[in-house]
Amino acid sequence: MCYCLWLGSGICPPRTIPLGPTIYDRLVPENMPDYRHVLEGSDDMPAHAKCIITGVSINIPITDGRLNLGTWQGIYLCEFRNDGGSRHIVATILE
After folding, report:
1. How far is it, in rounded angstroms, from Cα 45 to Cα 36?
2. CA–centroid distance for 58 within its chain
3. Which of 9, 36, 50, 68 is most buried (CB neighbours < 10 A)?
4. Cα within 13 Å of Cα(54), Cβ side
5. Rounded to an integer, what distance in angstroms lies between the CA atom of residue 52 and that of residue 9?
């Protein structure tokens, strides 16, 4: 089993990628008057909320030394900040 934690914005299921920005921006738009956490920019609070929706970690089974993903499956990293900084991935492999 491989446990991946992205120290960034979020891990998105593959099917959400083409529609991701449109859907997430409609669900959690910037510049809403009731956002309280805005000192880091108008995109900061929405980025936190979008991370709650997508998650920041994923468990992936390993078979014969390889990630056991389906034919059309993949792992996509999403940056929800308009100008995100450097990010890191922590992967833990368990037998």
Report:
1. 8
2. 10
3. 50
4. 32
5. 9
Q: Is there a contact between 35 and 45 (Cβ–Cβ < 8 Å)?
A: yes
Separation of alpha carbons 75 and 14, rounded Å:
7
Residue 3 has what DSSP assignment? Answer: E
15: nearest Cα among 93, 62, 74, 81:
74
Task: Provide the percentage of residues in the chain whose pLDDT is more than 70.
Answer: 81
Choose among 18, 22, 21, 27: nearest CA to 74: 18
Q: Which amino acid is at 46?
A: P
Residue 35: partners with Cβ closer than 8 Å, 6 or more residues away: 45, 46
Q: What is the pLDDT of residues 62-85, one digit of tens each?
A: 999 888 888 877 787 778 888 877
What torsion, rounded to 10 degrees, do the Cα atoms 4, 57, 82, 39 define? -120
